[in-house]
Write a structure and sequence with these properties.
The protein is α/β, with parallel strands linked by helices. It contains nine helices and six strands. Helices cover 46% and strands 18% of the residues. The radius of gyration is 17 Å and the shape is globular.
């Protein structure tokens, strides 16, 4: 019997290269009452000039330029992504990377992105488990998720979700905010307008330096 009642959506992006604006795939997992109720994953066509597919990245996730050639662009697929997420807090392992992907590619494509609330399963794992490593495969196994296909975006998202659900169960927490308060991990928020202003400020500073 499931004794966890928290709700959230876990997310994972794969990128074509080292640029966070090069998202080429996304995986999403919706959790209700501590259980996965829906999964979704699709390819994304990275925007120019962030569309180079480096061999290292392709080897990691198996996604090539040819596979994304006819995939929706970030602007085209964003409504689908936001509809899946709804009002949920987003959970990711090393969440600043994944949320950073959404922000950076939105800035690169001049796309409107609503404010996002997010929670990091990596930070939670570090505060909750005694492990030799807190990489997703190791932390997910500690949470009892043993079927991870690493760098498959929906599998990575589900692994992140498993960590949050496991720690929630251990803490007896019923809300994601309670998990964060008990473990000392905040639910954070990011707004595109602030990030755009910061980017403009840094660009101006570099110009006049």
């Amino acid at each position: 019997m499931n004794d966890v009642t928290i709700d959230f959506t876990a997310i994972d992006f794969e990128t074509a290269n080292g640029s966070p604006a090069s998202a080429c795939a996304v995986g999403l997992v919706k959790v209700r009452d501590g259980a996965v109720v829906e999964r979704a994953s699709w390819l994304i066509q990275p925007p120019q000039p962030h569309d180079a597919f480096l061999p290292f990245n392709v080897q990691l996730h198996g996604i090539s330029r040819e596979m994304t050639r006819n995939a929706p662009t970030w602007e085209e697929q964003l409504p689908r992504l936001l509809a899946f997420v709804g009002d949920d807090v987003l959970v990711a392992h090393n969440a600043r990377f994944d949320i950073g992907v959404a922000v950076t590619i939105s800035l690169a494509t001049n796309t409107t992105l609503p404010p996002l609330a997010y929670f990091c399963s990596l930070r939670l794992a570090r505060r909750s488990y005694e492990l030799h490593s807190y990489r997703l495969p190791v932390a997910a196994e500690a949470a009892g998720f043993t079927t991870l296909v690493h760098h498959d975006p929906v599998s990575d998202a589900e692994a992140s979700a498993a960590i949050v659900v496991d720690v929630s169960r251990r803490l007896g927490a019923v809300e994601l905010a309670d998990v964060g308060a008990s473990a000392g991990v905040d639910i954070e928020r990011i707004e595109l307008s602030r990030e755009r202003e910061l980017a403009a400020t840094l660009t101006a500073a570099a110009t006049f330096a």
